[in-house]
Amino acid sequence: MTTETPDNSSSARLTPCRDLEPSPGPVAKRVPTERTHHGDTVVDEYAWLAAKDDPETVAHLTAENAYTEARTAHLEGLRAQLFEETRRRTQETDLSVPTRKDGYWYYTRTVEGQQYGVHCRRAVRDGEIAPPISADGAPLAGEEVLLDGNQLAEGHDFFALGAFDVSPDGRWLAYSTDFAGDERFTLRVKDLSTGEVLPDEVPDTFYGTAWSTDASTLFYVTVDDAWRPYRVWRHTVGTPSGEDVVVHQEDDERFWVGVELTRSERFVVIDIHSKVTSEVRVIPAANPTGEPAIVAPRRQGVEYSVEHHGHRFLILHNDGAEDFALAYTSADAPGDWTPLIEHSPGTRLEAVDAFENHLVVSLRGNGLTGLRVLPVGGGDPYDIDFPEPIYSVGLDANPEYRTNEVRLRYTSLVTPDSVYDYDLVTRQMVLRKQRPVRPGPDGRAYDPADYEQHRDWALADDGTRVPISLVCRKGTPRDGSAPCVIYGYGSYEASMDPWFSIARLSLLDRGVIFAVAHIRGGGELGRRWYDEGKLLAKKNTFTDFVACARHLVKAGWTATDRLVARGASAGGLLMGAVANLAPDAFAGIVAQVPFVDALTSILDPSLPLTVTEWEEWGNPLDDPEVYAYMKSYTPYENVANVDYPAILAVTSLNDTRVLYHEPAKWIARLRAVAPQGDYLLKTEMGAGHGGPSGRYDAWREEAFINAWILDRLNRA
Fold first, then answer.
1. pLDDT band with cut points at 50, 70 and 90 for residue 547
2. How many domains does the chain have?
3. What's the number of CA atoms in the CB half-sphere (13 Å) around residue 166?
4. Do 159 and 177 meet the contact criterion of CB atoms below 8 Å apart?
């Protein structure tokens, strides 16, 4: 996370402005596309924009980019200034806190001027307990470079790692690369003893790998034509990928698969999951050719996950437990589940991590994350305490099973990312490193005391109280004069827990308030909060956000003409929906990789992710009620001739999750139906769902967006 009735007239409406003439295309492309479902016929004048490789589409996107650049040219100096502020505040040459695994410390370095991280390890020295720290980010003496992202990225506009998995014996590194942004990775194996990359590479793999105990076998995942992870494969190191064997194939299109090795390194776990149902199969890591054994057969509506601990499998589940409970079963002969932590409504259990002598449960209650420790073999469970009223905490990388110390990560809206080591026996917590924040443009060191964070509550239309987290410069007035950015997501039970952003400081120091609306559809207040913002209750997500925006004005935080909304992906759907629902509530809207043509996408099972999404949005293909409900809120379907706030849509040509043509069509229809508005489309022509891959490119993208926001807020 960085930081945050159609007009069927001439297709010339597609041109971004009158002095940028569209290139004439074949007449066939200009013929509207019709679809009919449940007796409803819809005309889509801009469906031709889905032809990604067509010169007309590329020309249109290029013209949109040129128009956006021309319309924002006056912000070039501000963009450069914002970029420089982020760069100046960031310690560019830095080193992560090393994580111990067997005889090595593993860490990542960044180097000033380089876009990507350098992945390294260094042998643990005799008597060395605490992780070695390099204050200035310099390489550790005796380090071994495992993978240099900068070298791999040479000659490519985009670069991302999918897998980075060292074998249990420390000899092999399985890694995968994507040079397009479409999240289709090529998997390779590197011999860390010689530095040689083996010839047995595997194209078109997905996230997730797992090693056998003896490191002879590597498990990985591939996707089907709809980009659904559906096959787990077994690869023998040193053999051609054509000899690989399918270990599990999931034919139910609602489900996807993943694979991982347990922390104990005893089992390879195949996780099979839909939005509401799951099944787990396990293979003894010492017997990689064995048949996967089912821990518990899938039952519709029952979700569970498995963690290995000694003689048992820990089962985190929602069987009769809305906010989940913890149980266990035999690892040798999985069967009945014996309760460990009973269901407690309002306390959502999210994960369990097993160590030899302790279990650590990640949970949330009252809108905040937390950690609960369960000593094994005696001792009362206890929660770890944290000082701030609003924060986010979770376990970090903890690869070792036999340890009494865990690594955790803590942050808040004012506290930079902080890495702690916590002793599970003595309950002592040691700060290993806090993300450095260098002095800003005024030369002053960053001081959290210069900022303040708040928790406020809005009242939704149905009387539900919706939490809002806010951060601002200390002394920011509460008389409605301060500008504000309100961020939202509200889908997939994803919680927008407080996070620190260096780039955000440039807004706060200019007097801007930053607010996060914890709306239904997310998971901030437990499973109920999610259920009340999905399927046929999805509109609660949108009305909650509008209620939060109006509350900020009513409470004096800001004023309507000083309020900009921002969201990405499913949060981009939120942006489009609230633009239609309450265009008067915002001075501007930023929609990044926005899911704004949701109904069209969810009606097409051949598109990536569609079938697996039916349990999130409903199936409009078969259910007339779902069709009518989705049509009533999908942004693209509901563009009207109203006075919209200024809109900036940012997308990526190679995005597989939300296809670029959704925002392209949306902006085109906005211009045709409500031509009095101010709409901009910016397309990254060589990136994916997460935008530009290099850190400097990502900072420039954020500077572009923040400059536009400040312009809308009259703070440019």
1. very high
2. 4
3. 22
4. yes
By the 8 A CB rule, do 407 and 396 touch? yes
Query: What's the half-sphere exposure (Cβ side, CA atoms, 13 Å) at 631?
Result: 17
Catalytic residues: 569, 655, 689
Euclidean distance between CA atoms 2 and 569, whole angstroms? 13
Are 426 and 470 found together in one domain? Answer: no
pTM of the model: 0.93
Q: Note whether residue 584 is domain-resident.
A: yes
* Domain shared by 253 and 173, yes or no: yes
Question: Residue 545 has what pLDDT?
Answer: 98
Q: Which string of DSSP letters, residue by residue, matches 592-612?
A: ES----HHHHHT-TTSTTHHH
**For position 135, what pLDDT does the model report?**
77
Q: How confident is the model at residue 654 (pLDDT cuts 50, 70, 90)?
A: confident
Rounded Cα distance between 354 and 310, Å, is 9
> SS3 of 662, please?
helix
Judge contact between 118 and 153, C-beta under 8 A.
Answer: no
Query: Distance between CA atoms of 627 and 635, rounded to whole angstroms?
Result: 14
Same-domain check for residues 493 and 642: yes
Residues 458 and 392 in one domain: no
Instruction: Beginning with the edge strand found earlier in the chain, give each strand of the sheet holding 405-411 in spatial order.
Output: 392-395, 405-411, 418-423, 429-434
- CA triple 249-255-260, angle to 5 deg: 65
Residue type, 456: D
| 243: CATH | 2.130.10.120
Domain co-membership, 552 together with 640:
yes
Q: Is residue 523 part of a domain?
A: yes
Q: What mean pLDDT is predicted for residues 295-309? A: 98
Cβ neighbours for 87, distance < 8 A, ≥ 6 positions apart: 696, 699
DSSP string over 13-45: GGSSSTTSPPPP--HHHHSPEEEEETTEEEEET
Domain span including residue 481: 33-87+440-713
Joined together, the tokens standing for residue 274 give 């839909």
- Given pLDDT bands bounded at 50, 70 and 90, which one contains residue 284? very high
Is residue 110 scored above 80 in pLDDT?
A: yes
Give domain status of residue 555, yes or no.
Answer: yes
- 21 falls within a domain: no
